[in-house]
Write the structure tokens for this entry.
Amino acid sequence: VTPVYAALVHHPVKDRQGATVTTAVTNLDVHDLARSVRTYGLEGLFIVTPIEAQRTLVQRILDHWVGGPGQKRTPERTVALRRVRLAASLDDVVDTLTEEHGSAVRRLATAARSPEGRSPLTYAEARSWIDDAPSPVLVLFGTGHGLTDRLLMDVEGLIEPIRGPSDYNHLSVRAAAAITFDRLRG
Ligand code: SAM
């Protein structure tokens, strides 16, 4: 089975006006994404932020739940959070995983809207894309107003947006990730 990882990206992402920014880490995202990652058998979740103080903060939260006082009280949370890792950049994640697996990682991005000029994979295609992959796959999720268009154009794979029957297109990253994992691995 192809090893699949997820990355929650806090840079480079867009703000409301489309400018490239760095967002702050949300505690709830870390907990909820870790549980979904664990449920669907992904190998790990990378929290990506260039801000060192933010990585220190997340590490302190992880230390509380993994090996710290939180472990006794809620062991199922520990099991999920054990898969969380921190990284300063997406390039660092790619380098780390490529080194650990000995083959180049392929990035598969998600977006509420595909950038013009790139036709995305359907979920069915993305599923086979993963299964046929000779190397690990890293599924990318954005924060703020989503991953930058440049990143969405650069990655090896892009998945079509999830759509409901309405024209409302503002899923939280936590919901979008759970739906994505279910479609790719469920
Ligand atoms: N502040 C928001 C929150 O509460 O989560 C962050 C929104 S962030 C732009 C949402 C991320 O979830 C996107 O970058 C993408 O990775 C994913 N996402 C959101 N809507 C999606 C959709 N319709 N299809 C696929 N992925 C989606």
